[in-house]
Amino acid sequence: MADAFEAMRKRMRAGFDDFPILSAVLGVSKESASCDCQKRYNTFELKSRGTGKARAISAPCQHLKLMQRALLDRILCHVAPHDAAMAFVRGRSIASNARRHHRATHIFTTDICSFFPSITAAHLSPMFEKRFRHLSSDAIKEIIDLVTDEGRLPQGAPTSPHLANLVMFDFDERCSWFCDRLGAVYTRYADDISISAKDAETLRHIASVVAEGLRALAMQVNPEKTRHLGPLHRKTVTGLDIGGERIRPTRTFRKKTAALVRMSVRYPDKMQRHRSRVCGYLAFWHGVDPADRELAKLVSAMGLDDWTERILAASAFERQFDGTCDYTLGGQIPF
Ligand SMILES: [Zn+2]
Predict the structure, then answer these.
(1) Reverse transcriptase domain: which residues (predicted)?
(2) Does the predicted TM-score (pTM) go above 0.85?
(3) Which whole-number Å values give the CA distances from 328 to 38, 72, 90, 177, 242, in the listed order?
């Protein structure tokens, strides 16, 4: 019994000794990487600020996280995601994703169910063999062990976002190629797929290609989040309004934020405890369109004139890009 426990404990360790090839290459010191934690991953629920929905997060222990971060920065980042992959890449955001569909008349949007956990070693292995040709099969095995939890990408590891983008590369390429030929536009923001086209017929055709591609990857779409929108609908992409002069947060969001600011001005004492939430909404808005005049008025009404861009940039809106990757095209992979 004690032996079985010890064996299990050893298996769960993310220590330096479990990754001989990687630890040598990554230059992580033995002291900082050796791990005696009870669990490799800590699982908890996190409520999204925007939607209020709870997501299950599996956060790696600090030692494992250090190794994953080094792996991301030194090896994984040398391979770039597709141009149509809009999430987790520096310089791309929900706003630049929405901008590619600005003023489209017909939009198809869909959402891949539990995106990171649906990516398994079976997706990662061929991707590594194809994109990281310098890696030996032993190194690939070590990497896959380092970045997966029970054979799946954990929601909460710094390596998961970029790896998910790389696994989706061929799918992105196929969808983009197909859309190009039909004068349509394809983008993917993490699990959110958006396609805009000139007519409904083209869009239906492309939607079937997308569905087929996802089936081939053993991924499922969320039917509740799948929409075909035509000229008469108010259209949003990654939660942003794409029908107006500029890309903006939705009217509902803007009205709610403006109402909260008015309340904060009128009842500063009562609203004090909601202040950080209101500032979070303003910061989100700022991230979408920093030059918005309606926003400038609200920021000044809140007495936030002294807020520098830096403070706003460090806000909640930016935190979702934790896994952002500075990939360097054509860089030297240290193998
Ligand atoms: Zn640890």
Answers:
(1) 1-242
(2) no
(3) 36, 12, 11, 24, 31
